[in-house]
Write a structure and sequence with these properties.
Number of strands: 0
Helix content: 55-70%
Shape: elongated
Radius of gyration: 18 Å
Strand content: under 5%
CATH superfamily: Tetracycline Repressor, domain 2
Number of domains: 1
Structural class: mainly alpha
CATH class: Mainly Alpha
Order of helices and strands: HHHHHHHH
Number of helices: 8
């Protein structure tokens, strides 16, 4: 996990988009960031290059992110929020299916076996680990774990109560395999 420090000292996104147009802009910036990261490497993903790749002025990028470190942090958060959303949607779509089928689907989504999740790699996670506080890591992990718990709690045929400790261990194992 990251060093023990307060999130106030970390580069944070300036604002989170709430309107459709702002969400589109931030998504475009994330897409440009990922294209550069994958094509040219992490060091090439400068604010100027990301803005240019995305078709926006650098000032537009700075409206949302003070620097590329904050953009990386925002992007990793975006990936985790997308994963939680995908888990909940898949669980709903599989309502009525046996719990084993639903469990396999959640595992596949968590591992990104179909390659449909937003791109992130080991180096992104390692860099995020260097900048985010332990508290932020715990918060993100707990959000993912509670999403899993909520999904499993909806499985009427699940044999037994939802055990948060077991879910935490399962997620740590899955996440270790993904990284």
């Amino acid at each position: 996990m990251g060093k023990d420090r307060t999130d106030k000292s970390l580069p944070q996104p300036h604002k989170r988009p709430s309107q459709a147009r702002a969400k589109f802009t931030v998504d475009s910036l994330y897409e440009g960031f990922v294209r550069i990261w994958r094509r040219d490497g992490p060091e090439a993903a400068t604010t100027r290059a990301i803005a240019e790749e995305s078709g926006y002025a650098v000032g537009t990028l700075y409206e949302y992110f003070p620097n590329r470190t904050a953009l990386l942090s925002g992007y990793v958060r975006h990936c985790m929020e997308q994963l939680c959303s995908d888990l909940a949607a898949a669980n709903t779509a599989l309502a009525g299916e046996p719990w084993e089928t639903r469990l396999r689907k959640l595992v596949r989504l968590t591992l990104d076996e179909d390659g449909q999740a937003p791109y992130f790699d080991r180096e992104m996670l390692e860099r995020e680990n260097q900048i985010a506080s332990d508290a932020r890591h715990r918060q993100i992990f707990q959000h993912l774990a509670r999403t899993w718990s909520h999904c499993i709690a909806q499985w009427e045929d699940f044999p037994g109560p939802v055990d948060d400790t077991v879910i935490d261990i399962l997620l740590l194992t899955l996440w270790g395999g993904r990284r």
